[in-house]
Write a structure and sequence with these properties.
Elements (H helix, E strand, L loop, with lengths): L4 E2 L2 E2 H12 L1 H10 L22 E5 L3 H12 L3 E5 L12 E2 L3 E3 L5 E3 L7 E2 L6 E2 L3 H9 L4 E4 L7 E2 L10 E2 H21 L9 H15 L11 H7 L21 H7 L17 E4 L4 H11 L3 E2 L2 E8 L4 E7 L3 E9 L1 E4 L3 H4 L3 E2 L3 H9 L11
The structure holds flavin-adenine dinucleotide.
């Protein structure tokens, strides 16, 4: 990551601020707009060419990066060996089901007591429709996908500081926020306060579009009625018999929504990474790592904690400790090494790389995250 300045602020400072304020996906998009991460140009299966001449590759880490590398390099004729810290493949691509347990780094053991059929993906859980490579691997390796529900209009949004702590339906906040904003903008437009930004011809079009977008009435107000209830839902749905007529519901005022801060949550489904159609593997995200394990699992050595990586002009040597048996560290060498150990861990490993590479590894910021499974 370059530290080249944007005004008086470095790119790194700017991206860290964006990440802290808006989350990693927004920071990722900001990086993409600065041409710091290229969009995926994956067009189909990778075709590695050339004769490896019996060369060996040592892959460190059996997360998806390591597994993909193992699959492709072995297909191309390399002798592949993978060293993995855990007792399973997948890395962050992981699923917990009832009966599973996990010992945290501090030694505390978490037991998962979900009912049969329930699971939690502690790490990744969404496959965007434009993540072409992973979707292609799923297809080729027989991982069955289903759609992932990013936006649940009937879910609750909650703030202990708003609405007396009472949760509010997502669809109410969304419809009423849009309606309130549309009404304000329509009012400004009609009062000709937008004339500097919108031409006379476009003013009518803008008003028409605000009416549609915000579910405004003919007088450009957003209020209780069938129009707003079409978006936010009714107090009583349309029905048969004597109570057949729908009963409209009462919108929340825009100033209440603004003060509540709940509008912050409305953006998620609009973010490129989270736009429908999103996918997930049927039965848990680790169906992907399990599918890779069927192909290359035999090349993975588990419970190997890599502690050093050394290289000279001819080969690379990794030192690892068996996390189950301990004992003296073991060394394994290969012609090439492909390291997929996350930089936050790599920065703690005895590593034979140049000072700028060390600096880069040490400088990479990671965002903390938390997931709760009930
Ligand atoms: C909470 C969360 C949610 C996410 N959601 C999504 C999502 O919805 N969609 C999406 O596409 N991406 C998501 N991601 C990102 C995605 O999980 C990662 O990009 C991806 O899993 C990284 O794969 P990897 O192989 O590079 O790294 P990892 O999966 O971290 O693999 C690294 C491997 O190296 C091993 N290792 C570490 N140290 C050592 C050592 N010393 N010796 C030997 N082995 C070692 C680890 O055990 C691990 O198996 C999410 C990530 C998180 C944390």
């Amino acid at each position: 990551m370059s530290g080249a300045g944007i005004g008086s602020m470095s790119r790194r400072e700017l991206l860290m601020m964006i990440g802290a304020a808006a989350g990693s996906s927004v920071a990722y998009r900001a990086m993409a707009s600065l041409d710091m991460v290229p969009e995926s140009d994956y067009k189909g299966p990778i075709k590695l060419e050339g004769d490896p001449k019996g060369a060996s590759v040592l892959i460190l880490g059996a997360g998806l990066a390591g597994l993909v590398a193992a699959l492709e390099l072995r297909k191309a004729g390399y002798k592949v060996q993978v060293l993995e810290y855990n007792q399973r493949v997948g890395g962050r691509n992981w699923t917990l089901r009832g009966g599973d347990s996990y010992t945290e780094l501090g030694g505390f053991e978490q037991k998962c007591e979900f009912d049969p059929g329930l699971y939690l993906n502690p790490g990744p859980w969404r496959l965007p429709y434009h993540h072409n490579a992973i979707l292609d691997y799923c297809k080729r390796l027989g991982v069955v996908l289903e759609s992932f529900n990013q936006v649940n209009y009937n879910a609750y949004l909650h703030s202990s500081k708003a609405f007396g702590g009472k949760p509010q339906r997502y669809r109410h906040i969304q419809a009423d926020f849009n309606g309130g904003v549309a009404e304000l903008l329509a009012k400004s437009t009609k009062q000709k306060k937008m004339d500097q930004m919108v031409t006379k011809e476009d003013r009518e079009i803008l008003l028409e579009s605000l009416k549609g977008w915000g579910a405004l009435e003919n007088d450009y107000t957003y209020r209780m009625g069938l129009g707003s209830s079409e978006r936010r839902g009714y107090d009583h749905d349309a029905n048969g018999g004597t109570i057949g007529k729908p009963v409209p519901s009462k919108p929340i005022s825009i100033d209440e929504i603004l003060k509540s801060g709940l509008w912050r949550y409305l953006v998620h489904g609009h973010i490129y990474e989270f736009q429908t159609t999103l996918f997930q593997p049927v039965g848990g995200m680790d169906m992907i790592s399990k599918a890779f394990a069927r192909e290359v699992g035999d090349a993975v050595r588990f419970n190997c904690k890599v502690t050093a990586i050394k290289q000279d002009g001819h080969k690379v040597t990794a030192t690892y400790v068996d996390t189950k048996t301990g004992g003296t560290p073991t060394q394994v060498s290969a012609d090439w090494c492909l390291c997929t150990i996350p930089a936050s861990v790599l920065s703690q490993i005895d590593l034979d790389v140049s000072a700028p590479m060390h600096d880069a590894i040490n400088a990479l910021p990671y965002e903390a995250s938390i997931k709760v499974g009930l």
